[in-house]
Write a structure and sequence with these properties.
Blueprint (H helix, E strand, L loop, with lengths): L8 E4 L5 H9 L3 E4 L5 H4 L8 E4 L7 H4 L7 E4 L9 H7 L2 E3 L6 H16 L2 H9 L18 E5 L3 H14 L2 E5 L5 H7 L3 E3 L2 H7 L2 E4 L13 H6 L5 E4 L8 H9 L5 E4 L19 E3 L8 H19 L25
Parallel strand pairs: 1-2, 1-3, 3-4, 4-5, 6-7, 6-9, 7-8, 9-10, 10-11, 11-12
Length: 338
């Protein structure tokens, strides 16, 4: 049995791609676009709303949920759900969905771009040529990727995509640490991926790339100890979540040039503070959490999230359910037909 057939309302705390908006409108869904993503602006707009489509940049917690008595589903336009209080949603009977795998190749491409820019010293060389220092070509030596060792912390969809790119295109040796990877998946990769503990990975890798969600167990999983394990010639790349690195420890490490450099698409606080010391360092490349935000991927993720809302409204189980246990909540009984 589908939820009540009266017209549904979906709140957008931030604008989403027009293709997703058109999909919702084609199903006669009323769209409520918040003029600002600030919680105090969003809260009063939640009255009478059945769905929310959520990007990053706003935390959807219990306080907002308490303003949303009719809310059925919160759909993220990405894989991460660290900006949703999932336990609170489950307690209140709100289904949370994400977009698993939709941006895997896109984010992997961005991580690879950071790796290549670091190894080839592209930002520095660009700056020097603009300052008429063409002679820099005699004073610095970029590095080859071919044959190097790539260490991956996290071998989910994004990590495994990057592993394939680097192994197949550059004949890179792949080390991986992922204690949560199902044994059957690990077995299928053992012919070309060496699984090891974190210490071996950090000590042996020429490039380390992080592809893990932010959780209590991964918070600051890379700290002073792990950075101290790295080779002086090694690079660190993070296109997952800023909180998985102890940013203060990384800043100190980069200042002292104890590693060759870093490429960061994510930060402990986003956007980073105006006086964040990372901005003053010339051995780090910074991008604005844009790894999954290409034109093509943005459309795909927004449409996926919109479809999840529509599926719920039409009595269908959506793809990407983060908290399927919520379906045992009384108000979900009899809504979905298996």
């Amino acid at each position: 049995m589908a939820p009540s057939q009266k017209s549904k309302r979906v709140l957008l705390p931030q604008p989403i791609e027009q293709e997703a908006v058109s999909l919702l409108k084609s199903a006669n869904v009323e769209i409520v676009l918040a003029p600002d993503k600030k919680p105090e602006i969003v809260a009063p707009l939640l009255k009478g709303v059945q769905g929310v489509i959520l990007r990053t940049g706003i935390f959807f917690g219990k306080e907002l949920m308490n303003q949303a008595d009719d809310l059925l589903v919160i759909s993220r336009t990405g894989a991460g759900v660290d900006n949703v209080d999932v336990p609170a949603a489950t307690e209140k009977g709100i289904l949370v969905t994400n977009v698993p795998g939709a941006n895997s190749r896109t984010v992997a491409e961005h991580a690879l771009a950071l790796i290549m820019a670091l190894m080839k010293q592209l930002p520095r060389l660009d700056r020097e040529v603009r300052q008429d220092n063409f002679g820099i070509r005699y004073k610095t030596l970029p590095r080859d990727l071919t044959g190097k060792t790539l260490g991956l912390v996290g071998l989910g969809k994004i990590g495994s995509e990057l592993a394939r790119m680097c192994h197949q295109s550059f004949d890179m040796h792949i080390l991986a640490y992922d204690p949560y990877l199902p044994p059957e998946v690990q077995s299928s990769l053992k012919s070309w991926v060496d699984f090891c503990d974190l210490e071996k990975l950090f000590k042996a890798s020429d490039i380390i790339s992080l592809h893990i969600p932010l959780s209590p167990t991964t918070q600051k999983i890379v700290g002073a100890r792990e950075l101290g394990w790295m080779k002086p010639s090694a690079y660190l790349v993070n296109a997952s979540r800023g909180g998985v690195i102890d940013e203060a420890a990384l800043i100190q490490c980069l200042k002292e040039k104890r590693i060759a450099g870093a490429g960061l698409d994510v930060f402990a606080k986003e956007p980073p503070e105006r006086d964040n010391p990372l901005k003053e360092l010339d051995n780090v490349i910074l991008t604005p959490h844009i790894g999954g935000l290409t034109l093509e991927c943005g459309i795909k993720m927004a449409v996926f999230a919109a479809q999840a809302n529509l599926d719920v409204f039409q009595g269908k189980k959506p793809d990407g359910m983060v908290n399927p246990e919520v379906l045992s909540h009384p108000h979900w009984q009899g809504i979905f037909s298996d």
